[in-house]
From TrEMBL:
InterPro entries tied to this protein: DHBP_synth_RibB-like_a/b_dom, Sua5-like_dom, TC-AMP_synthase_SUA5
UniProt keyword terms in alphabetical order: ATP-binding, Cytoplasm, Nucleotide-binding, Nucleotidyltransferase, Transferase, tRNA processing
Keyword Transmembrane: no
Compartment(s): Cytoplasm
E.C. no: 2.7.7.87
Chief place where the protein resides: cytoplasm
Catalytic activity: L-threonine + hydrogencarbonate + ATP = L-threonylcarbamoyladenylate + diphosphate + H2O
Name used for this protein in its record: L-threonylcarbamoyladenylate synthase
Pfam family, one: Sua5_yciO_yrdC
Residue ranges of the TM segments: none
Superkingdom of origin: Bacteria
Length: 216
């Protein structure tokens, strides 16, 4: 059964966050508002839940899922090491529209798709998302849409595309312009912008104090 909770109403927000947390812990998928577009998410450490997320989207493991976190410090337990460049970008842009790719900690029991030993991390600037993340821990999250269709900018658009494949929808109102996050790969010898989104390449370069290469 699918339930949509209007998070603009205090009672529904509390009930919705509790239902979403329960669903995530049970290995089910939920839809949450973020500062970019709506996301479909699940427990990052449950391969079964991640498989269900990919199935809901109609997508395979060749397009791995990123991970949202609820605090700066969470990344220390998820990656092999945190270089100074990553800490600089975290301090400059988190919470916000910047995703960082780093080698993940080899001890972690997760399967986010064909990541090549890396993980894409972001802390979203949305109070509902942050509250849920701080309750349940890191979540595997992808845009709330069927593969090949536009990302959902409202909870209803997510419902229209994903339907009963998701058990809980948290409605945080329209997301605004559906601009994706900027992705910076820090897994190699030098930073590389894989996708320019809400944060400009110039802003990334300024934060790092050096011109950043853009992947073509």
């Amino acid at each position: 059964m699918t339930t949509v909770y209007d998070c603009s109403e205090r009672g529904q927000r509390e009930d919705g966050l509790a239902a979403a947390a329960s669903a995530v812990r049970a290995g089910r998928t939920v839809v949450i508002p973020t500062d970019t577009v709506y996301g479909i998410g699940c427990d990052a450490f449950s391969p079964t839940a991640v498989s269900a997320l990919l199935a809901a989207k109609g997508r395979g493991p060749d397009m791995p899922v990123g991970v949202l976190v609820g605090s700066w410090s969470t990344i220390d337990g998820l990656v092999l090491s945190v270089p100074q460049s990553a800490r600089t970008l975290v301090e400059a842009f988190w919470p916000g529209d910047l995703s960082i790719v780093l080698p993940h900690a080899p001890s972690l029991a997760w399967d986010l798709g064909r990541t090549g030993g890396t993980v894409m991390l972001r802390m979203p600037l949305h109070p509902v998302a942050i509250e849920l993340l701080r309750e349940v821990g890191p979540m595997a999250v992808s845009s709330a849409n069927r593969s090949g269709r536009p990302p959902a900018a409202t909870a209803q658009e997510a419902v229209d595309q994903l339907g009963d494949s998701v058990s809980v929808y948290l409605d945080g109102g329209p997301s605004g312009d559906p601009v994706p996050s900027t992705i910076v790969d820090l897994s190699g010898d030098e930073p590389v912008v894989l996708r320019e989104g809400a944060v400009s390449v110039a802003a990334v370069s300024e934060a790092l104090g050096a011109e950043v290469r853009v992947s073509r």
